[in-house]
Amino acid sequence: MAPMEVYIDGKFLPKAEAKVSVFDHGFLYGDGIFEGIRLYAGNVFRLDEHLERLEMSATAICLSLPWSRQAISDIVCESCRRNNLADGYIRLVISRGTGDLGLSPKNCPAPSIVCIADKISLYPEALYTQGMRIITSPTRRISPAALPPMIKSLNYLNNILAKIEAQQHGFHECLMLNEQGFVAECTGDNVFLVHKGRLLTPAAHAGALIGITRQVSMEIARELGLEVVETNLTRYDVWNADECFLTGTAAEVIPVIEVDARVIGSGKPGPVTGRILEVFRRKAAAEGTRIR
Ligand code: PXG
Quick check: is 15 catalytic? Predict the structure, then answer.
């Protein structure tokens, strides 16, 4: 099999040679943005939405993108073709670029763009059929006043600390609360509750990233006739929900059956979660930007 090729600033390089400078401000300071995107059966899922979010993240960090949306789209599709992928995970990273030591972005003449198209490693299928157990992290989600959670930035330490705590206690994921104690999201996934026929999820201002899978799940729920409400949620609301699930590009839609040792609903993946996952997988298989 041909070795993986990674796109860096205009060139495709073999994986072993795909390197960026130690003076890159993405490495030195986490000064940059990224997207995680899925390729399903030769189609890139919701590429335009991912690129729109990338542009909005760029605006928010005062990084002016020297590439058009079409140019970035071409890089993504070419990365998939070069690596002979039909299904995969695409990591698009834009950093402030190479500069001097010192925080100032003024030292960085040009941003860098990297695109990695790889195979996807998924959660075990058993988690989708049996559901996941999670806990609440003692680490609070960073305040939206300190760093807007909508920016998909290269600063993930807040989420990584929470992930470490989850793993230390034997869990894959954990719930993160905001400073006020309301539910924000999980470390790399958005959170949803189903309660009395309504779909509930925290708003961005509560500390949630506006996930693409979140948007698709809300769209599906409306198609299924559910009322969708963005609202403040407490741990009490989570423990007493009929159903709970998480959404993310890597995870898709994953049922949660236990939170903080409280059994959610029947203790099995719920029917609404199942319907949303089913429709999500159907959409993922049928939609998207063709790579060839
Ligand atoms: N919240 C956070 C904090 C995220 O990082 C999501 C929600 C879900 O958004 P999407 O657009 O994917 O539906 C994310 C994104 C990984 C990985 O390698 C996944 C994410 C971020 C970083 C790494 O699994 N998920």
Answer: no
